Structure formats: C-alpha cells, structure tokens
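just leaving the lab so this will be short. what follows is a protein written twice so to speak, once as letters and once as structure tokens for the fold. can you read through it and tell me how you think this chain folds. thanks a lot i owe you, the record is right below.

___
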Amino acid sequence: MNCNSHLFNGLPYETRLALTRRQLFARGGNVLGAVALQSLLGRGLRAETEGGKPALPHRPAKAKNVIYLHMVGGPSQIDMYDYKPKMEEMYDKDLPDSIRNGQRLTGMTSGQKRFPVAPSKWKFSPAGQCGLWMNQELLPFTAKSVDDIAFIRSMHTEAINHEPAITEMQTGSQVAGRACIGSWLSYGLGSENKDLPAFVVLVAEPSQGGAVQAISGKLWSSGFLPGEHAGVSFRSSGDPILYINNPDGVTVPTRRRQLDAINQVNEMLHRQLGDPETHTRIQQYEMAFRMQASVPELTDLGKEPAHTFELYGEEARKPGTFANAALMARRLTERGVRFVQIYLNGWDQHGNMAGKLPTQCKDIDQATHALLEDLKQRGLFEETLVVWGGEFGRTIYSQGGLTRENYGRDHHPRCFTMWLAGGGVKGGTIHGETDDFSYNIVKDPVHVRDFHATFLHLLGIEHERFTYRAQGLDFRLTGVEPARVVKSILA
C-alpha cells in the first residue's frame, strides 16, 4: 500500500510504522463505518449508550457498591456451614460409589485406594432466628450476623483445580484474558469519587504460614475492557500504591505542569492513531496525581475512634491483616469506591484441618461481623453488597490419613457454600440443598454464572444486555450459556 495515501496525511514516519492493521482500517473506514452503524442500529445505539458506555443501570439498583471477600483455596463447607449429622455414622467408611458416581477427582486423591468419610470434628448448633446450623465453635461472631445473610449451599462449578476455578469465579471464564467482575462494574457504573479508583484490590496475609495459592494481577485485570478499568492494588507495607509520589525535589505545581505537557502530547497521538489506550494513559496519570492527596488520608487510621477497633479487634491496626483490609474496605466504600476486592489466601486444606481451619476462621470471624455492623451503623449496609466465598468447596472424604481429631480434604467443585449480605439481599435465607455427604446437589443448584447474574441484578444490571464487543464478539460476564437470577435470596 502506498504510504503517501491520504490515510496517512499528517502522520510522521515513526507513527506510520506503529500503525496496526486494525488501526489502519479504522482510519480508512471510520466515516463510512459510523454512517453504516447508525443506519443499522438507529436510535437503539443512543438508547443503550452514553458517551460510548452502556446506559446503566437498566433498572433501579438495590446495591450501589460491592465488597467481595474471596477465601483463596476453597473453604470447607462441611466444616463451616453445611451441617451433615449423618456422617457421624459413616466415620471411616468408604464413600459409596453411588454417591461419587464416577465423578472427576484431582490428581492428589485419584490414586487413593480408599475414600474414607471424615465427619466434621467440630460441633454445630443453630444460629439466629433463621436457625442456620453452623460451626459456632470457630465462627461465633459470624453466627451473630446470620439473620443478615443469605447462604447459597448449592454453588457449583466445572473447574476442579485452583487456577481455572478462581479465574472463572472472578471473570466468568476458566480461560485467562477476560475482564473481571470489578472491571465490568468500573466500566459500566464508574466511580462516585473522582479522586479514587472505581475498583480497588486488597490482598490480606493469613496469620498462619504454609503453602498458599498463587494469585496475580490477572484476577483484577480489565481484559478486553479499556485498561483504566483494571483494579488498583493497594499494598500493605511501604507506599500503599507504588510510584504515585513525587520524587525528591519535584513540587506539586511542577508535577502538574509536567502532566499537562504529557497529556497534550498524548492527545495529539490519540488524534493521529485513534488508539483508546492512549486515553487510558492520560486518565491513569490524572488519577495518580489526584491519589497523591486522597490515598494518605484514606489509609490513615489515626482518626478512627476507639470503638472501631473494639468492633474489628486490635488486628485491624496491623496493615496486611484481614481485619485491617475489612476496615479499609469500609473506608473505601464510604468514599465512593464502587468495588472493593479482598483476597485472603491459605484455605487449601489438604491436610491438618484441625490445625489450619481454626486459625483461618479466627482471621475472618470478628472482622467480617464487624464489617457488616460497621456498614449498618454508617447507613451503608442497605446500599452495599457484601459477598463471601471461595472458588470451590472440599470433599467429605479424607485426603491422606484420617483420625477423629484430624484429617484433610481435597477440592470439590460439585457443591460449596457462598453467602451474600446487604444491598437487596434477603437476610436469614438458606438457598439450595446438598445430599447427606455434601457431595451432590439435591435442590436448587446455582452455577457460577447464576451467581454473576444475581450479582449484576442487585446492581440494577440485566446480565444479557450488559455486553462489550471485542475481537468481533459481544462478550458478557455470564457468557453464552443460560444464566438465571437466584430470586429466592432477593429482598
């Protein structure tokens, strides 16, 4: 193609070399394409979009903000929320073939000669007016909140290993590269605070060491959405966010002049190439500049009253703890951050359940109850959706050795428990039912995509209408298979 074509008028030689095929065709066809698109879609285009984004919400929303507490590794539903008293009679007996029914196993237990049933070693008792039977030994504070919570006992997924399972839970697909939930909401709903990101990620450290699952930025990636919608990860030590502070000797006015000059160059480049990521860079520079003032105030807990730490516990004063992350999540939410994601690792308990689970539960129990109470006290509970769960559950049979006092459990995707509370959720609800072995669902199954559809519904979004075109396809969080809203947990 002739590089002197009118398509390249005004572009320097280096810029011409940088053009991709897609950008080239876009420059040549933008006028005709716009005319054709308007002709085909008519008023529907204007009705569904505002400034290039969806016109959301589709209906009045029950929730405005989200705090998502993800327990990385797969918490044991059998030892926490899915009471199975008949398993006492099955102790150390083989899991019946009729229950397993040839279902897939992980490589960690597929070679076992036996699959001995391991009842929970902890005592369960009914909690709240709803009467949920749960492990109050390890979760005494959470037990106080059950009447504010909707429990889904019938969650299921096809993914049996951590990487695809957590990827599906966060993005709707087991294959990496899709946009995560927080990015979808940032893109669709934006932020209520121009000085903070719409989507913030906090990675808490378990108090007990040992093997943990790898988690990475792909879980808060914007995927095919514009890069500005990726999650911003706050660190627990040192500067909360790397590289936003000015170097020594650079004043705020100097930095402002530098950014203005850089933005002018980027705007020129955007007019020449039409690459949307150029605007992403501009917005990220501007956000970093504004966060220089907003983040120090946000992360300074010195002005929190004493009763805050009585509620959350003294661990909330220590950066990196789950309690500290929960308190930070409240502070972010009350400042208008749309989506706060907390990850807590260490829930992959293939062995030594007796030694590991109590510590994990202690990490989250008081702080989770405190978060719900704190949101209530500040008038935020009714408009904030709080989600708790992992990427799958654990098996009723023991992995490795089994005693009455200790055992391990393998991954189990066939059924597990998650819960929701706050904006638009009917508290004290128990949805779904599993068999006596907590191995198969016998009533009201909820797939990951159903969970996502329900999640979006509470935010006023119809999941089938919330799409983004990339690579010639209209992507949506819930994918192409049927998904339904779990109406029984809606207030």
In short: The mean pLDDT is 86.
